[in-house]
Design a protein that fits this description.
8-stranded mixed β-sheet; 14 strands; 478 residues; Arc Repressor Mutant, subunit A; Aspartate Aminotransferase, domain 1; 4-stranded antiparallel β-sheet; alpha/beta; 41% helix
């Protein structure tokens, strides 16, 4: 906020500037002496002196020693015409810009001020390790201060890449060379970078249907011709993809936990997908965003562990295990592609925030990430069980589908139900559900709602289920 004297100074400057631009103070006119104008305006003389100095610095006036201050002689005859705003925002966009602006990025605009009960796919803010994170941030700030005048390495801090490689080896069985890891601002940037580098506009790309909305959007933004491939309880139907687009350039797939239905690719489909990619000279973008959270059976190894031909780009994130707002993710890239990935990262944003990277590296160096994941996994399992039990007792109008992993589930609506009305009724009661229809790239094959459990504490499970049933009852009555 400006101090009062700065505000008065700007007011005098702007008044004189407008007089010059509108012609009321014509070219060559002599401005009043500073003392006289100050008395007329009721301000300190120094205020007028500073306003005159600013006018001179910006070329509006010229001071003549012993004579006074005069309006510059080489200004335009009249003030420039004010800009005319476009009649509609869309009219200001290029054809490509309008296309990009129309690509969906999520199922529903979410306002967290309305609460996060049943919010899908997001971690619980109350479980973020704030104190430990703050200690790590404080520890790295001083040594990092000397590097603040330079851009971060576009590939990511080497220390963090080493910790990520160790973490992948220990938790996912994936051996990754730190030199092949590129730190990104979340999975989304990794997907967009890969799509820009590996596809030409019009190239076909398989996407799971239903599937990850923002990931599909990244491919559309890169100009891909998206080919919806059915996803079921066993994930992507590889045979259907080959039948629909055998020469596709790329496939976006979540082998461990497909969004939103939760299917996981069995070994037969995994091998078939890798075989097709090798024969078609295609690339596989593996989205492994919430593989840490598995509720039935053992965690499934990444598809990348089976890749012998270097066709898989493995994308991970800390958005689910820590917090989305940190914007920290990574891609494990085949070695020949690393230079291109790094170059495009440089062109995009000159690299991910170094302070956040350094803090995460320190958090991992102290061995804090693994116990944090164990703690939240235990708590999320409790919240999931409590919500499912409460829904079984109090909700009759939807059927939860099996959710073997992840932080959300799909609840199927009865045939003929109005999905949009159900979602609206729920959201009006503070339940942040999303329409299943939004996850389909092609025609929807069922009506339902996507709902999370991570942000719904056990103590609120019963109330949440009752509120859900009440909303569905209202939607059913129309």
């Amino acid at each position: 906020m400006l101090a009062p004297d700065q505000t008065r100074q700007f007011s005098v400057f702007e008044r004189l500037r407008q007089g010059i631009l509108t012609g009321s103070l014509p070219s060559g006119a002599r401005l009043p002496p500073t003392r006289a104008l100050a008395g007329e305006l009721g301000v300190a003389r120094q205020t007028v002196v500073l306003a005159y100095e600013r006018l001179a610095a910006e070329g509006y006036v010229r001071a003549r020693t012993g004579s006074g201050t005069y309006v510059a002689p080489d200004l335009p005859d009249a003030a420039p015409s004010p800009a005319i705003p476009p009649k509609a925002a869309a009219s200001a966009l290029s054809t490509r810009g309008a296309r990009l602006a129309a690509i969906p990025a999520s199922a529903t605009a979410r306002d967290h001020r309305d609460g996060m009960l049943l919010a899908g796919g997001v971690p619980a803010p109350d479980l973020f390790p704030a104190q430990a994170w703050a200690r790590c941030a404080s520890r790295v700030l001083k040594p990092l201060a000397g590097e603040l005048s330079s851009y971060p390495p576009p590939q990511g801090l080497h220390d963090l890449r080493e910790h990520i490689a160790a973490h992948l080896a220990a938790t996912r069985g994936l051996v990754a060379d730190p030199g092949c890891i590129v730190v990104t601002s979340g999975t989304q940037q990794a997907l967009r970078t890969a799509a820009e580098l590996l596809m030409d506009p019009g190239d076909a790309a398989w996407v799971e249907d239903p599937g990850y909305i923002a990931g599909r959007g990244a491919l559309l933004a890169a100009g891909a011709e998206v080919v919806p491939v059915p996803s079921d309880t066993e994930g992507l139907n590889v045979a259907a993809g080959i039948a629909a687009a055998p020469h596709a350039r790329l496939v976006l797939v979540a082998p461990s936990h497909a969004t939103p239905l939760g299917g996981a690719l069995p070994i037969g489909r995994r091998l078939a997908l890798l075989d097709w990619a090798g024969r078609a000279n295609a690339w596989i973008l593996e989205d492994d965003c919430d593989s840490e959270f598995r509720w039935e059976g053992r965690p499934l190894p990444p598809l990348a562990t089976l890749d012998k031909a270097g066709r898989v780009i493995y994308c991970g994130t800390f958005s689910k295990t820590l917090a989305p707002a940190l914007r920290l993710g990574f891609a494990v890239v085949p070695a020949p592609l690393v230079p291109a990935f790094v170059r495009l990262r440089t062109l995009m944003d000159r690299g991910t925030d170094a302070f956040g990277q350094a803090t995460l590296a320190e958090f991992m160096r102290q061995g804090l990430l693994a116990p944090h994941i164990r703690r939240v996994r235990t708590e999320y399992a409790r919240r999931r069980s409590a919500l499912l039990a409460a829904m079984e007792r109090h909700v009759q109008r939807i059927t939860p589908l099996p959710a073997p992993g992840g932080l959300h589930m799909v609840a199927r609506l009865p045939d003929g139900a109005d999905e949009a009305a159900a979602v609206t009724a729920c959201r009006s009661r503070g339940l942040s559900v999303s329409p299943l229809r939004a996850y389909y790239a092609g025609p929807a094959r069922m009506a339902g709602m996507v709902m999370g459990f991570a942000c719904t504490p056990e103590a609120l499970a019963t109330d949440t289920a009752k509120r859900l049933e009440a909303a569905l009852r209202v939607a059913e009555k129309g």
